[in-house]
Specification:
Elements: H1 5-21, H2 32-49, H3 61-100, E1 106-108, E2 115-117, H4 118-133, H5 136-150, H6 160-201, H7 207-225, H8 227-252
Antiparallel strand pairs: 1-2
Helix pairs in contact: 1-2, 1-3, 3-4, 3-6, 3-8, 4-8, 5-8, 6-7, 6-8
GO biological process, one term: bacterial-type flagellum assembly
Membrane topology: Multi-pass membrane protein
Family: Belongs to the FliR/MopE/SpaR family.
Length: 254
């Protein structure tokens, strides 16, 4: 199909929203000028192949600006669903760090530039590698393309189904975080209970000095033991969030 300037601008807006919120695309390690160049190249390429339909005629600057704002919001929402999956992983790491005594130790996440828990960063890196390995970033670009089948320009419809899906996805984030952290948290809880019994039976032992290294050791051992299960679970997690993404895109359409 021929290149259309209006379609290019709308795709540019939707991709810009995706690059604001989506993991990998929103990495601060990539300079802003490079991101802009990538967005422009992708938008120009998609403008040739993606059929962009318009509900209104873009015949004045006010409508064009409003359409761009809507397109950015749509792209941001698509990327935000993927971000929620990684937020669940970081939340699980925070729960683990709290039990292991690592809450005071934070590292800088190179993707977002913020401080995150130590175990959260460990799990985040593994999840990011799996995400890239299963071409999750390609899936988001594909979602942008397919979204025009359901959401034409100025055709955004934020009904009750959309808000219910956002709430459901957010709730699922907390459920996933608890499931990921549960093995390590339970092991450390059992360790705490055991140390409590030891403190009662052997008062001479300083359980505070012995307990902290023991909790760290138990946490790391359990973490390594469940790592294969964690990797398997990540595949299911991303598949579930991509399913939520498809449903949310459909709910935003007319």
């Amino acid at each position: 199909m021929p290149f259309a300037l209006e379609g290019f601008l709308m795709i540019l807006g939707r991709l810009s929203g995706l690059f604001i919120s989506a993991p990998v695309f929103n990495s601060r390690q990539v300079p802003g000028t490079v991101k802009v160049l990538i967005i422009v190249i992708l938008s120009a390429t998609m403008a040739y192949f993606v059929p962009v339909s318009f509900l209104v005629s873009l015949d004045n600057p006010g409508i064009i600006i409003a359409a761009l704002v809507v397109e950015i919001f749509i792209g941001f929402t698509i990327g935000f669903v993927a971000y929620i999956a990684f937020a669940a992983i970081q939340l699980a790491g925070q729960l683990i760090d709290k039990q292991m005594g690592f809450m005071i130790v934070n590292v800088v996440d190179p993707q977002s530039g913020t401080s995150i828990p130590l175990m959260g960063n460990f799990k985040y890196i593994i999840a990011l590698l799996l995400y890239l390995g299963m071409n999750g970033h390609h899936y988001l670009l594909q979602a942008i393309v397919q979204s025009y089948q359901f959401i034409p320009v100025m055709g955004l419809n934020l009904g009750a189904n959309f808000y219910n899906l956002i709430i459901e996805t957010t709730v699922y984030m907390f459920v996933v975080a608890i499931k990921i952290a549960a093995p390590v948290v339970m092991a450390i809880l059992i360790t705490d209970v055991s140390m409590g019994f030891i403190a009662r039976t052997v008062p001479q032992m300083n359980v505070f000095i012995v307990g902290l290294p023991l909790k760290i050791f138990m946490g790391l051992v359990i973490l390594l033991m469940v790592l294969p299960v964690y990797i398997w679970f990540m595949g299911i997690l991303f598949a579930r969030f991509f399913e939520y993404l498809d449903r949310i895109i459909f709910s935003m359409g007319l």
